[in-house]
Amino acid sequence: MLPLEDYQRYGRQMILDGFGLPGQLKLQKSSVVVVGAGGLGCPALQYLGAAGVGRIGIIDHDRVELSNLGRQILHSEETVGMFKAESAALALKRLNSHLTVDIYTTALSSENALSLLQSYDIILDCTDNAPTRYLLSDTAVALNKPLVSGAAQKFEGQLCVYNLGGDGPCYRCLYPRPPAQELTGSCEETGILGAVTGVIGNLQALETIKIITGLHEKKPALLLFSALGTPPFRSIKLRSRKPTCPACGTVGKEMGMLKEIDYVQFCGGARPDWETLGLVSGDPGFRIHAKKLEDALKSKRSIRLLDVRPETEFGICQLPSSINVPLNRLVADPSEYLPRDPLTETYIVCRLGNDSQIAADALRSVCSLDAAGLVRDVVGGLRAWSKHVDSNFPVY
User: Fold this and answer.
1) Which amino acids does the record list as binding ATP (predicted)?
2) Tens digits of residue pLDDT in 229-287
3) Quick one: angle between helices 194-213 and 41-51, nearest 10?
4) How far apart are CA 28 and CA 46, in angstroms?
5) HSE (CB half, 13 Å, CA atoms) of 352?
């Protein structure tokens, strides 16, 4: 039976057909672990705690930053600098003081995944990087547990429950090979609408509650969400497990032990420092640092400063005298953006120093050999300008 006050706390969901007291007792006896207490993990944790899940684990080694607060709703200005797992646990305890919350401020790895996750009934993937997604999928298969996975970027998100039932596919069945790193980006690089992570995170909590209470149909499907789409949701029926999948297949298994797999290397190695190194390799002689750009702007030389960020970003902030030429327009016809005087120095800037390299290479490809040396891009872009030249320049 439930404590007397829980009848009042959970009464609105217990009166639902098919839920009842048995459903609430199942939630009370269940355990769920959420990997990632960020944009997806916060709403998922909030509704799992509010629904009365008996034991909740939170795994996240990152700390709360000011840039998180627009979407990671369990954190606050007061918890900036605190471990996200600890901040989220505090918020859950304020919501329901009777919750049992396990806090893990260590990074999940192939060495500790099995031991950290094995005591929970359901695993939620609320992360944003490929190595951890593959690690969680493989671990869920090894432990024979459902994996409720969410993803969100820009205005879009997706949801899928992997390893569901006896024949549900795993993440590797759908994505045998990880995408190239240059084709993926974090929320910091691509942007994200906070409410989108809220939609997907809430749906992850909902799928988890359905599985625990026996309301889930256990038919594998991929749910796609677009905040700007009409209709905003689209569901894709998934096939059953791929027999040749190296993780969950019935033939040709190649995975071996989890501890022997280097997931970072499998996904292309450690993510490079794009701000310092740049997205593409280039001649260091064509690259300058923010201080050198400052010197050029203060000089009396005739120079041209191109900003190749999208118009939306240019509208947020820009350097004086800079000209906005979005990268897609420049690379489509670089000759159109050559200076009238071929001996004019051209400096190209973007947000982090990636797109500016591509733009500079495009311009050099259509100008004379002498003029090519006058086209330079700025290492680290406007982020480096704010860090090394003008601390009052906005960082977003």
Assistant:
1) 39, 60, 84, 128-129
2) 999 999 999 999 999 898 898 764 555 556 668 888 788 666 555 555 544 444 567 89
3) 40
4) 15
5) 16
State the DSSP H helix or E strand holding residue 375, giving kind and residue range, or none if neither. strand 375-378
Neighbours of 21 (CB within 10 A): 13
Give all domains of the chain, ordered by start, each with its CATH number.
4-267 (3.40.50.720), 287-389 (3.40.250.10)
> Which residue did the predictor score with more confidence, 85 or 246?
85
User: How many other C-beta atoms lie within 10 A of the C-beta of residue 354?
Assistant: 23
Assess contact for 389 and 291: CB atoms under 8 A: yes
The yes-or-no answer on residue 367 being catalytic is no
What is the spatial distance between Cα 389 and Cα 293, in angstroms, rounded to a whole number?
Answer: 9
Nearest CA to 164 among 223, 224, 240, 235?
Answer: 240
**DSSP strand E in 154-292: where?**
156-162, 221-226, 233-237, 287-288
Q: Which two tokens stand for residue 146?
A: 């459902």
Q: Which amino acid is at 340?
A: R
Enumerate the known binding-site residues. 39, 60, 84, 128-129, 170, 173, 245, 248
Q: What would the two tokens of residue 279 be?
A: 């997205």
The pTM of the full predicted model, rounded to 2 decimals, is 0.83
Q: Give Cα 280 distance to the centre of its chain.
A: 22
The number of CA neighbours under 13 Å toward the Cβ of 192 is 26
* Burial of residue 111 (number of CB atoms within 10 Å: 0-12, 13-18, 19+): exposed
Q: Residue 187 catalytic?
A: yes
Given the residues 42, 126, 160, 187, select the one marked as catalytic: 187
Which residues define the annotated binding site for Zn(2+)?
Answer: 170, 173, 245, 248
